[in-house]
Amino acid sequence: MPELSAVLLILSVCSATEAVTALRTEEAPRIDGIADEPVWETAEPLRANFVQHRPDCGEPMSEETVIRVLFDDRCLYFSFIMKDSLPEAFVRMVAPRDHDFASEWIGVWLDTYNDDNNAYFFYVSVDNVQQDGRLSEVGGWDQNWDGVWRSATSVSDSGWSAELAIPFSDLRYSGTDEQEWGVNFQRNTTRTSESGFLFRMQDDGDVRIEDFGELRGLEELPASRSLQLRPYGVGRMNYDSGTDESLDTWVSAGMDTRVGLSSQLILDLTVNPDFGQVEADPDQVNLSHWETYLSEKRPFFLEGSDMFAMPFNLFYSRRIGSVAQNGDLIPILGGAKLTGTAGGFRIGFLEAVTGRIRDGDETLAGTTSYSAGRVIREFGEGTYLGLSGTSTDIPSQGGEECSYGRAAALDGQITLLDDHTLNASMGGTWNSTDIRWKDNLSYRGWYSYYDGRLDISCGFHRTQENFDANLIGYTSSTGDLETWADVELHQPATGSSVFQHYWAGITAWYDRVPGGPVTSRGISLNSGTVFRNRYHIALDIGWDGDWTDRYEGPQGTAYNGGMNYGFSCSSDYRKPLHGDLWGGLNNYCDGWNRYLGSWVRYRPFPCFSIDADLDWSTTDNARKYDWSGNQWGTRNTDWRSVEIGGNFMFSNDLGLRLTSQLSRFSDEWNSEDRSREYSHWMNVLLSWRFTPGSMYYLMVGESADPDETTGEYGDPEFILYSKVTWLI
Predict the structure, then answer these.
(1) Overall average pLDDT of the 516-528 stretch
(2) Contacts from 318-323 at CB under 8 Å and sequence distance 24+?
(3) Taking 70 as the threshold, does the pLDDT of residue 381 lie above it?
(4) In this structure, what DSSP letter does residue 367 have?
(5) Which CATH code, of 1.10.3470.10, 2.60.120.10, 3.40.50.12240, 2.60.40.1190, is assigned to 2-219?
(6) pLDDT tens-digit series, residues 568-582
């Protein structure tokens, strides 16, 4: 049986392969997607059928991949040949950079310190759509990281090929003459629903850096001291069509500078930065006692954000350059950020200064200095010790006294026998508004066990009453002790022609104020399955016990518990028409909360897609305190939102994107209408990457907030925004 012998041979080669060798070259290959230059023939090819994690865990992928690696004083070069017997069946998709792939792709992972804790990843699809980011045992996934690298792809009768050139200036690594990096490669084949790695990962596809192979042959790498300058120019025009019709124009220019201090440290400086967001924040329904937590979208704060993921949310970057009481955006005058590795420590330090906002003689927001720093010492696979600190200083101005806020935290983790993890952290805050320095601590600890199929975790979190990091962080409820435990089982559906894998889990929690009321308790069961055709369905059912909301009403109130039900399902994202559907019914403040949502995308052409996101949420007969009438009542709410988006890509570097939202929120007390608010906004954004790292944006937007009196659509505001950034 020659076929069986070939498979066994491939398996033996894959199992014996523990290292990939890079060869130094004096001649840089041309990055055009076809590895036909003679220099590629000097590199020893590695031929392998990757090991699947989907759909048949542990089996070889059905098609062979050929890998070659070269390097010179500037870049690390990769050549991939992906054999495929049916290239005409490829799913094609031209999409913006860092967009999720729904097509064939190949990726490379690099653990440049070979410390089993940190790795870069670089993916490219068959249509040369790039995606990159970082993974850290401490900070988790950071897909906001963007490198400036080149790639090209080509399709042939026998499959497709890709070439990548990754500059060493994008990477951080040690300064030794001879280096060994951790490495892995990942491939996805849509026709067969296969996804796998050269060096086998866990069956569920989770990336474990400690399971990488080795990249050898790297010698005398450059001690990167590169300098990148990004001057920019920006212009904005706002037209308000209200009764006081007004036209505001604004132009500015600035400079972002990146200095590679060494192969391990990088310094970012910015003067008069444009921290404005090109994308708007979607409207959300928020019935909690706390402000909405907004995701960061500004490049300066996104870069290296994993290093500033501090315990207890000590650093919340949206505090910097937020909105003043009169609606004006607080300007950021400048900023500096240092990230990298020094003396075996991973470090991140950030400083930003914001300007004043005045309304006549009144100072609405004073000049403020924001500082944040984090230092981490890693000791191997999932074991580290970290120290974090923040400082916010508002000097006396406009007749106001100076104020400040300080916060610090110590956290650590130890991994035992590969699968057992212990994590603990402790932090405190010190603010000028509370100089007693009493009951201002927060601490937590948890244990977890995970072997790829069984996931067990439990822990506690205690936050004292005066803990408050809100000058630069995000603090919500304080004063209680939270405890929880979770067990989840993942099981591959080996041998099934219908199912890929199943999962089932149970979660229990019990929170209370020490010596006081129970603030939350309950238990939840969930289960689901993924089918071999990429469809999925999940169900959950839970019970909440009686609990007390300390923030509802003047003295808080107790609520009865009840049952909760939910579901979610999704279809095959490779298909031109696909989507998600979710919904549920929960007990809510002695009443009920119902919610239903769906997301649908239609991709009639590889370069064009349109999607719709629909959300509906109601609360019925909820017992709440009416602060405006100083009495208890019954509250009903109804939230409806429709978001429409679309992408048209003229090329991989030039695209047009539409984002829009139409929403309505109604609020009813004691069966009487109290308010009904309508709002909408729409942006059309043209993005052009005219050279790697250089961008031009042109945005046209329109929005209408609710009228303060009627709640109907207010007078629309029109925005024209243009920005160019040039990488030198």
Answers:
(1) 96
(2) 318/294, 319/370, 319/470, 319/471, 319/472, 319/473, 319/474, 320/352, 320/354, 320/370, 320/472, 321/275, 321/352, 321/354
(3) yes
(4) -
(5) 2.60.40.1190
(6) 999 998 899 999 999
- How many angstroms separate the Cα of 1 from the Cα of each of 4, 7, 47, 207, 671? 6, 10, 22, 35, 77
Indicate the pairing of strand 65-71 with strand 23-24.
parallel
Is the distance from CB of 241 to CB of 717 less than 8 angstroms? yes
> How far is the C-alpha of 214 from the C-alpha of 183, rounded, in Å?
5
pLDDT of residue 408: 97
How far from 280 is each of 276, 299, 462, 680, 702, CA to CA, in Å? 10, 14, 35, 11, 11
- 701 residue type, one letter: G
| Domain boundary assignment for the chain | 2-219, 290-476
* Per-residue pLDDT band at 313 (split at 50, 70, 90): very high
Close Cβ partners of 540 (under 8 Å, ≥ 6 residues apart): 524, 525, 526, 527, 564, 565, 566, 567, 584
User: What are the pLDDT digits (tens) for 232-268?
Assistant: 888 888 888 776 777 888 888 888 888 888 878 888 8
Q: Is the dihedral of CA 495, 501, 502, 507 positive or negative?
A: positive
Q: What is the pTM of this model?
A: 0.84
Alpha-carbon distance 232 to 442, whole Å? Answer: 42
- 28 DSSP 8-state letter: P
- Calpha distance 221→228 (Å, rounded): 19
Coil, helix or strand at residue 284: coil
**Residue partners of 650: CB distance under 8 A and separation at least 6:** 607, 656
- The strand ranges marked E within 262-344 are 265-271, 332-342
Residue pair 374/383 in contact by the 8 Å Cβ criterion: no
* Calpha distance 653→264 (Å, rounded): 30
The CA distance from 680 to 416, in Å, is 52
Cβ–Cβ < 8 Å for 414, 398: no
